[in-house]
User: Fold this.
Amino acid sequence: MAVYKIIELGNRILRERAKPVPKITPNILKLVDNMAETMYGAKGVGLAAPQVGVLKRVITVDAGDGLIEFINPEILKTEGQEIDSEGCLSVPGTIGDVVRAAEVEVRGLDRRGKQCVIRASGLLARALQHEIDHLDGILFIDRAQNIRKI
Ligand code: ZN
Assistant:
C-alpha cells in the first residue's frame, strides 16, 4: 500500500466531475486501499478520489465506526437538517459551518462489486455528503458560513 499526496485548493482537479467506475479491477482495489491508508495517515474522516488526483467516483470514510469504502456512491434519500463545523484535507487550516441533511441513505458498490445501501446520521452522514460532493467538484467552502482559519 502507499500514501498518496493530497491535492489542495487551487488545483483544478478538485473542481471537476469524477467519472463512474464501470468495472472493479485490481487497479480500483489498489486505489481504494491506498485512499484508506492516505485518509488514516492524514487523520481524516473521509477522502474522495479527486483529492488524490483521480477523477473516479470512489470514496472512503471512517467516522469512528470502521472503514466504509464506496464505489459509485449516490444519495438516495435525505432527512432533516443539521448545521455543524466542517473541514477538509484539501483545504488545510480552515473550517466553516455547513448545513447538511441530518440523515442520509447512500447506495454504492463495495469492493466486491456488491450493491450496498447504508443509512447514516451524525458525523457519518455529514462525511458521506461531504465526500460525495467532492465527486461533483463541490468543496465544503462552497456551502459553508462563518469560514475561519484554525
Ligand atoms: Zn473534503
Summary: Strands lie at 46-48, 58-61, 68-79, 82-86, 94-100, 103-109, 115-121, 145-149. Residues 88-90, 130, 134 surround zinc ion (CB under 6 Å). Residues 12-149 form a domain with the Peptide Deformylase fold (CATH 3.90.45.10).
